[in-house]
Amino acid sequence: RAKAGRYGQVCYCDKNMLEELERRRRVIQILKDSLSEQSFEMYYQPIYSVKSGDFHYAESLMRIPDSPIGPIYPSEFIPIAEETGLIVDITYVVLDKVCKFINRLLEKGIQVGSIHVNFSAVQFSQPDLVDKVLEIIRSNHTPMSAIEIEFTESTLAESTEVVTEFALRMKDNGIKMGLDDFGTGYSNIATVINIPFGTVKLDKSLVRAAMDKSLSALAVKNLSYTFKQLGMKVIAEGVETDEQRSLVEGFGVDQIQGFYYAKPMPGDDMERFLLEHERR
Ligand code: C2E
Ligand code: MG
Ligand code: MG
Ligand code: MG
């Protein structure tokens, strides 16, 4: 149907568009509520270390439980949180929740390597980002080395200098930095080298491609070797099958993350998972 918009233009909105707009409006409200009530949950996905055969690392992934509009996944709510700027404060709450989770594990004598936290590009527009991050970790008395911050290539494209400066400040404080989803963006190896990351995560699409074509496999293997020669730790993401596991192990990756080992799970389950795998 036709609707008179501002300035008198006519806007044709079909039913699907209106439904989409309404859903978006609801998601924004749910994000605002779950931020102010801090009611969103962090899930954790174990990361397997190839050499030692143990699980002392994990990635934290945000979840919105009991949504009144049915399940809302990160692929839907993270972009909305980014567009509205809500992600800035959400990330601070995420970091605080992760610190408290690490403390809980350490108090129970469970060994923790580090827990990865995702940062969006928008985060880097905040001039007080470094101070805020340090303040949250310090006030929780969490070891700096137990946190690894992940960001994607798109962040680099938007603000290489800001990210470089941030990464240096984090490194000075013993906080680790990792590049997420390598292979999905546009950055080249030169950009990667100029920023002090300790870790590169090969995106699941690279793992898939390497399974399909032997030439791709050669390229991904060489990529993995290059990063390792640069002194970085390499993680393969999205590994679902035993075939994929053995392929990426052949690439010399240090760590593997994927449904093959475990899906993301609530903190209580993660704690049990870690205990069970420690006792083996
Ligand atoms: P990501 O950071 O690359 O996280 C990995 C995603 O891959 C997660 O999706 C995880 O559940 C999924 N995954 C892990 N193993 C496998 C596998 O074997 N197969 C497949 N098909 N998928 C696998 P999830 O939790 O839906 O999150 C999607 C994205 O949303 C994340 O991608 C990240 O970019 C963003 N995200 C999630 N939580 C947060 C957060 O707390 N803050 C920010 N800024 N972004 C977040
Ligand atoms: Mg990530
Ligand atoms: Mg990733
Ligand atoms: Mg991703």
From TrEMBL:
**Boundaries of every EAL domain copy:** 24-278
Under which name does UniProt file this protein? GGDEF domain protein
